[in-house]
């Protein structure tokens, strides 16, 4: 939740660079609604309930632990330009709360 909240806190910095922040997870639309309300999020949360997006972006993990299958997505940040080209990727441990500064720097670099 820290990562989601940090994007909300710095949302104006992204908007100044004409960037759209979207949160995507495998949680249901209902769960997103509750989550957005409780955290007072103003940017969209998208449900990837069937993991189609995470599979296409290479962050879906089908892991086995102690004989049980665990379906999970890596925590990741993607910066996609207006042409749909991925310009920045940060895949990190779910326990990490990465700095937003490298993403903002990548946005500046795109602006030229």
Report on this structure:
With about 110 residues, the chain is α+β, with helices and mostly antiparallel strands. It has one domain (about 1-110): Glutaredoxin (3-Layer(aba) Sandwich), CATH 3.40.30. It contains 5 helices and 6 strands, in the order H-H-E-H-E-H-E-E-E-E-H. A two-stranded parallel sheet has the order 1-2. It has a two-stranded antiparallel ribbon with strand order 3-4. The longest helix is centred in the first third of the chain and has 11 residues, at about 30-40. It is globular, with a radius of gyration of 15 Å.
Number of helical segments with 4 or more residues: 5
Q: Count structural domains.
A: 1
Question: At CATH's second level, what is the architecture?
Answer: 3-Layer(aba) Sandwich
Rounded to the nearest angstrom, the radius of gyration is: 15 Å
Largest sheet: 2 strands, parallel
Q: Return the structural class.
A: alpha+beta
Write out the strand line-up for the largest beta sheet, numbering strands in chain order: 1-2
Mean pLDDT equals 87
- Low-confidence parts, pLDDT < 50 over ≥5 residues? none
Q: How far apart, in Å, are the first and last alpha carbons?
A: 32 Å
How much helical structure, as a percent, in the residues? Answer: 25-40%
How much of the sequence is in beta strands?
25-35%
Shape: globular
Spell the H/E element sequence. Answer: HHEHEHEEEEH
Number of strands: 6
CATH class: Alpha Beta
Strand-helix topology:
Blueprint: H1 2-9, H2 11-16, E1 23-25, H3 29-39, E2 45-47, H4 52-56, E3 60-65, E4 68-73, E5 75-80, E6 86-92, H5 101-111
Parallel strand pairs: 1-2
Antiparallel strand pairs: 3-4, 5-6
């Amino acid at each position: 939740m820290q990562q989601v909240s940090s994007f909300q806190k710095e949302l104006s910095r992204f908007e100044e660079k004409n960037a759209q922040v979207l949160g995507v997870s495998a949680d249901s639309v209902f769960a997103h609604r509750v989550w957005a309300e409780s955290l007072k999020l103003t940017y969209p949360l998208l449900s990837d309930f069937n993991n189609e997006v995470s599979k296409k972006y290479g962050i879906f993990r089908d892991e086995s632990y102690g004989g049980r299958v665990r379906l999970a997505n890596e925590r990741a940040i993607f910066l996609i330009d207006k042409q749909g080209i991925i310009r920045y990727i940060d895949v990190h441990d779910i326990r990490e709360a990465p700095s937003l500064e490298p993403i903002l720097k990548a946005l500046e670099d795109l602006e030229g």
